[in-house]
Design a protein that fits this description.
The protein is mostly helical. It has one domain (3-63). 92% of the residues lie in helices and 0% in strands. The protein has two helices and no strands. The longest helix is centred in the last third of the chain and has 35 residues, at 29-63. The chain is rod-shaped, with a radius of gyration of 16 Å. It starts with a helix and ends with a helix. The relative contact order is 0.17. Residues 1-56 have a biased composition (Basic and acidic residues).
């Protein structure tokens, strides 16, 4: 996983959290839901990248 992918995914997660909190504070349920969705997307992407990293390590272990 590239460093830029990690940064983008984390940024999406953080932006989603901010959007969720802004929606909650202002009473806008749609904004809050959109923030939760963005946060979940960022977390899911991070998990997928971690799986790719782990698979690469396992593959590398068997090549030796």
């Amino acid at each position: 996983m590239s460093v830029m992918d990690k940064i983008r995914n984390k940024a999406q997660e953080v932006a989603g959290k901010a959007k969720e909190m802004a929606g909650r504070a202002s009473g806008h349920e749609d904004l809050e839901a959109e923030g939760r969705a963005d946060k979940s997307k960022g977390r899911t992407k991070q998990a997928g990248e971690k799986i790719k990293d782990a698979a690469g390590k396992v593959k590398g272990a068997f090549k030796s």
